Write the structure tokens for this entry.
Amino acid sequence: MPVLEPAQVAPVKEVGEDPVTLRVPRSGRAVGSRRKDILQTLAKLLEDPQCDRITTALIAKKLKLSEAALYRSFPSKGAMFDALIGFIESSLLDLFAQIRDDDALTQIGRVQMMVSVMLDFFRCQSWSDARNDGTGSDERGSEAHRTYDASLRQA
């Protein structure tokens, strides 16, 4: 078991018990920011054309964490991808809603903007290659494609 520095631990006394030492979160890290850090690292790895295979070991190494720390934030590798896809999906749908509501654009202008956003997104996304790992994420990606197609038809 590693020895923690004094800045990393805080003594706590329970009534009638010996002092217990608890780990204190790293200073400067907000609650929930580890999940965000993991998702940002995952997104960067997906964008990297040199990265052939994304593993939890690689994500952990990039973040200087243990794989166990990843699994404290996400129950599985598939859950990491699903959280990333969910975030991207909601961001794109919000952007589509803003484009649809923009009165300065003509109907053709709205469609052109949405198609441009979709092409940029699909050019960058590589989950079908990097995620062919049995997590069921390809199905989620196909579902996202159908959702964007329906949103585009509404424009």
Remarks:
- Residues 6-14, 20-24, 128-133 have pLDDT under 50 and may be disordered.
- Helices lie at 33-47, 56-63, 67-73, 77-101, 107-124, 127-130, 137-154.
- Residues 12 and 130 are 45 Å apart (CA to CA).
